[in-house]
Write a structure and sequence with these properties.
The protein is an all-alpha fold. It is built from 5 helices and no strands. The protein has 2 domains: 1-34; 37-144, no CATH class. α3 runs antiparallel to α4 (93-132). The longest helix is centred in the last third of the chain and has 40 residues, at 93-132. The radius of gyration is 29 Å and the shape is elongated. Residues 25-33 and 139-145 have low confidence and may be disordered.
């Protein structure tokens, strides 16, 4: 009877150990390749390799605003790769968590950037609507005389 209980206990221990080993193998294989974020998945198309340039005062306004966009994404790329280097130095679950936090932070920055662009567009449209229709106080005063 003791021999049967010991045999059953040995089988249970070996089963548990094989489950733990299989889980570790699965975690290790899914950890590195699939979870590492890529810059091209975060950055808008066409701005993956945006280069930073100092904006010059004599440039036309369209060139200045375009370069400001390039500069923003160039700075973001630099910050992304610096954070990615830090994540790469970690091991196990810490690395995976770091990658996920990096991805989440970058997506938050993307959402924030989109909201800022929308605010700028709305304020520019309001300014145009006010000034194109002659409803500024200066224009009203001129026409009232």
């Amino acid at each position: 009877m003791k021999l049967i209980k010991g045999f059953i206990l040995l089988i249970l221990l070996l089963s548990c150990q094989s489950i733990v080993i299989a889980d570790e193998i699965y975690s290790a294989s899914s950890l590195n390749i699939n979870s590492r974020p890529l810059w091209r998945d975060i950055c808008p198309d066409g701005l993956e390799d945006a280069s930073y340039k100092e904006i010059r005062w004599f440039w036309p306004e369209g060139t200045k605003s375009t370069q400001a966009i390039y500069n923003y994404w160039s700075d973001r790329r630099h910050e992304f790769y610096e954070s990615l280097k830090q994540c790469d130095t970690l091991h196990g679950g810490y690395q995976n968590t770091c990658y996920q936090n990096l991805r989440n932070r970058q997506m938050f920055y993307n959402d924030q950037y989109k909201r800022d662009i929308q605010k700028q567009q709305i304020s520019q449209q309001i300014w145009r609507d006010i000034h194109d229709k002659g409803s500024s106080p200066i224009m009203i005063n001129i026409f009232q005389h």
